[in-house]
Write a structure and sequence with these properties.
Elements (H helix, E strand, L loop, with lengths): L2 H10 L3 E4 L6 E6 L2 E7 L6 E5 L2 H10 L3 E3 L8 E5 L6 H17 L3 H4 L4
Antiparallel strand pairs: 1-2, 2-3, 3-4, 4-6, 5-6
Length: about 120
């Protein structure tokens, strides 16, 4: 997947929006105001940072060399996924959706019932 494909997929999730980035070289995606993915664009290799529950994150790190602990916020919940041939489009979409749902779980039901 390229950046535009990832961007379109993130925005296809209900309630997702692209937000003001940390800087001019980062894409940031939020669901109901909570960040679920961001992509630094100025790095030499393309990667995406996603939220993940600790157990799933550990399993993915053991299985895929392209997955590393994230360097944003709480490291045990954020993971950096290098977009190499090892990471298939299907896996990336599943993980983006997981990250999205992890964020939605933390939003009160009143605000999210129409989204999940």
């Amino acid at each position: 997947m390229n950046v535009e494909d990832i961007r379109n997929y993130c925005l296809s999730l209900k309630g997702a929006e692209e937000c003001f980035p940390f800087d001019d070289e980062t894409l940031v995606f939020k669901a109901l105001g909570k960040m679920f993915a961001f992509i630094p664009l100025e790095e030499p290799d393309l990667f995406i940072n996603l939220k993940c529950d600790p157990v799933k994150a550990l399993n993915l790190r053991e299985k895929y060399q392209a997955v590393q602990p994230g360097y944003h916020m709480n490291k045990k919940y954020w993971n950096t996924v290098a977009l190499t041939n090892e990471v298939t489009e299907k896996l990336l979409k599943e993980w983006i959706k997981h990250s999205y749902h992890e964020v939605m779980k933390g939003i009160p039901k009143k605000k999210r019932e129409c989204y999940v």
